[in-house]
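Per your request, structure below.
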């Protein structure tokens, strides 16, 4: 009998194991069914009593058709609102070959630098762009957005001030309003007092101020000469931060030349769509004296084992895992994919074309000013780059302008008085200026003149504001202006990086699952990418539906009453969740409740976030089985009962086990007046089977770039929304410019809905999976993990399991016993590269171990390839243990092996070239070649180079580069 059945079923694309593979894997792990496996893995007490109530799963075609209708509700107007967000054009060659290319967007954070040289070079280019344009000495590889970069600058400088007891931070009233709001959010918990005012009148000479922040150009468009302000501030031992516009800095004197200590901002203007607020890469540049405390990731140059130049993440890159509650910031704060886009925009256009963008923008602003003055309109900015500040005669006239402009498909900025702001951009053309003039002419009942293009004009700024210093002088910014050259350069970098396009990335806790093409398609639609975050809400009805649906679905999945989509990373979600708990306690008068209990096994981001929220961290012990020590928890909950704010707990635990005491853990905290914060990093093992609210948590952040399929993008973007129980909902983040559910303060991200333009990815995933598909995804993740465990536990001890011997969706392989033979866990990680795999998570949460998570999107064939590789490596270790292989001169210690390594004329190593690069037959068919040998991290930290070094600087020093320098740091 023939039956009609849908073929385009998305779940079968996402959940890789088919029925035959599932049956085979169940036999291997010793379970008769998926249901038996889940019953033996997930404690009965926390299981959901009903199925998820979500819309019926859509096919890919049905989803894309429906989503097109939703997106079409967004109205794409010409945007001249400004305030840090501007229309721009991402060159098609970059859009197609990076933004839409899984070779770039599915890669992981470049902790394994030998197989991430492409992204690292692109990020070094980004750092160079920022260093050159800001005129400062060192820059990081991006932060979440301009507002959070400003907050990091404030806290960094507060930690560096020598003025004892200084807690005041001056902020110019010309700083972007969303930045001021975010600064207030970050300052309050740690006792910093914001003083907002006019920079021309403030007196910084007292002992109370440690820092000051300025905007360049100002939020209203005025360009001020801050040199005298900076000199006075420094005379009073006050640090100065300047938030700057990258495009304007091609014409304006750099902040570094004006004396700024830090420069922050947003690289969105360099080709990244506005996307209703994000994601965009914030930047942070500073003086070299702060290189050891600069927040975020820092890309540096080092050398590999062969003496070749190689890139890596330098200095404090993973300090939150090392220093935990003593960390100066939370480094899970990067926007790698977006900083790569911005860097490629600079590489493709080069300094001349970037400057021409700025010249064109400013020239058209001058033209617009002249035409509006001819109509009798007052423009109040004496010096400006791209923004006019118009003072109209009445509020009625302002409203008439707004009505006429919106009827013409144009958005301006409207002030609370009678002013109108107009910010032009590099996409603005003469006809756009004519259209703007026509709006005002019509409202005023006057005739608009005929515009003609001007061939040339003069900068009317004072000489002190006109940039004379060079920038982007490195050859990389002069070599790829033809599309063919640019295409080849990007492909050359892509080929150096291992991504999900090559093989599984079995990282525990990081859930590197499929980023399906159908989920990614809407991201680059103009209806999604071209909206300004402060556009009138009635123009964003499509986004409103996306937000409302997604919040409702996430509430159903988590069991919570409310969800905030604003946090734009998992760490930011942690912070927002803790602030919600703090807001709840404060509203009840319990300001003294500031103790956060955190298990020793917790993610390093947890204590870092708690400190940022003004809490005191108390560590709870773990048992020998890796679980929370209940006796220690009860003792400390009782001891700190009067001050207990919350417990931070990850579930399933970071050790990959469903702790059976989790309900008791939550009850203990609640009995002592605290709230339970759940880290949602392991939500991929909960969806459809249990939920944070069902377990007893009060708040949980969700990593949409993990469980809900937003790509990692090489280390960002991410989204970290939080779900909360009803009595915490009033304390979710708001926004100063666009109220979020009526809340107009407490923002944690610069944009009201954070990284709005990538939320469609998770929207698509849930729409096409439906409740049943999401539940099966969790079941498959658990099945795949237990299959790997079953295949590998004879070769590598599995450190922790549940009461039935099962792991959750991840497991920890213990490699510590190999140290006796001189083999470190790092050797295994590097050797896996020769087999074509990225390493699992190294030495976290237990030093000397590998944490493995396969996800539900990997087939049995891929799991077997990984297991075969790990078993083969175990045999290589055994050869060292038995003495058959030399303890130091062996295939593990020399891994990874590059093509250059094995193509030498005289091969002198005690193992064959074939064993080095083709350790298994499958590798021959699709060899991934690491581009550099093992990198010398210590050398890179001693000789810190964090920008593109001119080629000629290396011409006569090649021999010197291979000699380790044991002297002081650069």
């Amino acid at each position: 009998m023939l039956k009609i059945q849908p073929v385009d079923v998305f779940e079968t694309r996402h959940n890789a194991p088919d029925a035959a593979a599932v049956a085979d894997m169940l036999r291997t792990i010793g379970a008769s069914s998926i249901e038996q496996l889940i019953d033996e893995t997930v404690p009965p007490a926390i299981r959901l009593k009903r199925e998820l109530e979500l819309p019926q799963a859509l096919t890919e075609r049905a989803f894309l058709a429906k989503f097109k209708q939703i997106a079409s509700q967004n109205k794409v107007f010409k945007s001249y609102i400004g305030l840090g967000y501007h229309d721009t054009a991402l060159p098609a060659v970059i859009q197609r070959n990076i933004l839409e290319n899984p070779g770039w967007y599915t890669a992981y954070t470049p902790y394994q630098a030998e197989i991430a040289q492409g992204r690292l070079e692109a990020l070094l280019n980004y750092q160079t762009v920022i260093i050159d344009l800001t005129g400062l000495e060192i820059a990081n590889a991006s932060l979440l957005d301009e507002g959070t970069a400003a907050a990091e600058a404030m806290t960094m400088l507060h930690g560096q001030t020598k003025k004892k007891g200084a807690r005041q931070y001056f902020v110019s009233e010309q700083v972007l309003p969303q930045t001021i709001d975010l600064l207030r959010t970050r300052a309050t918990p740690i006792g910093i007092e914001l003083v907002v005012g006019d920079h021309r009148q403030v007196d910084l000479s007292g002992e109370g101020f440690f820092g000051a922040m300025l905007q360049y150009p100002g939020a209203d468009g005025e360009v001020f000469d801050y040199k005298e302000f900076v000199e006075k501030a420094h005379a009073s031992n006050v640090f100065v931060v300047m938030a700057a516009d990258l495009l304007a800095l091609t014409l304006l004197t750099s902040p570094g030349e004006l004396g700024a200590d830090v420069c922050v901002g947003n690289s969105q203007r360099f080709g990244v769509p506005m996307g209703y607020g994000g994601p965009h890469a914030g930047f942070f540049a500073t003086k070299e004296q702060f290189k050891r405390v600069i927040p975020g990731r820092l890309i540096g140059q080092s050398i590999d084992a062969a003496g070749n130049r190689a890139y890596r993440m330098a200095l404090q890159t993973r300090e939150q895992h090392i220093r935990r509650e003593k960390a100066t910031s939370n480094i899970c704060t990067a926007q790698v994919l977006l900083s790569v886009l911005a860097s490629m925009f600079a590489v493709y256009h080069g300094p001349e074309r970037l400057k021409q963008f700025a010249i064109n923008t400013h020239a058209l602003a001058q033209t617009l000013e002249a035409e509006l003055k001819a109509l009798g309109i007052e423009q109040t900015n004496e010096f400006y780059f791209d923004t006019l500040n118009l003072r109209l005669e009445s509020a009625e006239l302002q409203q008439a302008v707004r009505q006429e402009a919106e009827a013409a498909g144009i958005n301006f900025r409207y002030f609370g008085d009678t002013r109108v702001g107009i910010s032009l951009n590099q996409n603005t053309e003469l006809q756009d200026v004519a259209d703007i003039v026509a709006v005002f002419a019509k409202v005023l009942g006057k005739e608009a003149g005929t515009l003609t293009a001007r061939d040339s004009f003069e900068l009317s700024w004072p000489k002190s504001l006109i940039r004379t210093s060079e920038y982007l002088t490195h050859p990389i910014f002069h070599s790829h202006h033809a599309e063919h050259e640019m295409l080849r350069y990007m492909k050359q970098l892509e080929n150096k990086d291992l991504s999900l396009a090559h093989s599984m990335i079995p990282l525990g806790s990081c859930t590197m699952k499929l980023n399906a093409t159908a989920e990614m398609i809407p991201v680059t639609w103009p209806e999604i990418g071209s909206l300004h975050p402060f556009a009138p809400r009635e123009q964003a009805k499509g986004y409103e539906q996306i937000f409302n649906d997604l919040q409702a679905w996430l509430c159903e999945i988590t069991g919570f009453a409310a969800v905030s989509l604003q946090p734009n990373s998992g760490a930011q979600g942690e912070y927002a969740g803790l602030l919600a708990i703090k807001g709840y306690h404060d509203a009840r008068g319990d300001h003294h409740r500031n103790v956060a209990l955190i298990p020793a096994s917790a993610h390093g981001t947890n204590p870092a976030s708690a400190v940022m929220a003004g809490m005191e961290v108390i560590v709870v012990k773990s048992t020998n089985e890796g679980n929370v020590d209940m006796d220690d928890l009860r003792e400390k909950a009782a001891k700190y009962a009067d001050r207990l704010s919350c417990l931070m707990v990850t579930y399933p635990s970071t050790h990959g086990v469903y702790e059976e005491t989790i309900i008791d853990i939550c009850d203990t905290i609640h009995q002592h007046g605290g709230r339970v914060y759940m880290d949602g990093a392991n939500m991929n093992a909960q969806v459809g089977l249990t939920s944070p609210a069902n377990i007893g948590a009060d708040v949980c952040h969700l990593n949409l770039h993990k469980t809900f399929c937003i790509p990692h993008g090489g280390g960002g973007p991410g989204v970290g929304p939080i779900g909360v129980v009803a009595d915490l909902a009033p304390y979710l983040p708001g926004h100063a410019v666009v109220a979020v559910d009526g809340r107009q303060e407490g923002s944690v991200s610069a944009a009201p809905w954070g990284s709005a333009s990538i939320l469609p990815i998770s929207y698509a995933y849930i729409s096409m999976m439906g409740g049943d598909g999401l539940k099966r995804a969790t079941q498959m993740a658990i099945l795949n993990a237990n299959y790997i465990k079953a295949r590998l536990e004879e070769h590598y001890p599995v450190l922790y399991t549940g009461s039935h011997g099962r792991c959750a969706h991840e497991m920890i392989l213990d490699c510590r016993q190999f140290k006796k033979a001189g083999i470190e866990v790092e050797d295994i990680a590097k050797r896996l590269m020769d087999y074509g795999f990225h390493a699992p998570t190294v030495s976290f949460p237990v030093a000397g171990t590998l944490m493995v998570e396969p996800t539900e999107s990997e087939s049995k064939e891929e799991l077997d390839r990984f297991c075969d590789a790990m078993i083969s490596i175990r045999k290589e270790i055994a050869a060292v243990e038995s003495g058959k292989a030399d303890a130091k001169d062996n295939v593990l210690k020399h891994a990874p092996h590059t093509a250059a390594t094995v193509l030498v004329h005289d091969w002198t190593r005690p193992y064959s070239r074939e064993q080095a690069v083709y350790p298994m037959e499958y590798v021959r068919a699709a060899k991934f070649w690491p581009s550099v040998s093992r990198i010398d991290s210590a050398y890179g930290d001693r000789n810190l180079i964090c920008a593109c070094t001119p080629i000629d600087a290396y011409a006569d020093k090649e021999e010197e580069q291979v000699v380790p320098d044991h002297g002081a740091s650069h």
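The mean pLDDT is 94.

Regards,
D.
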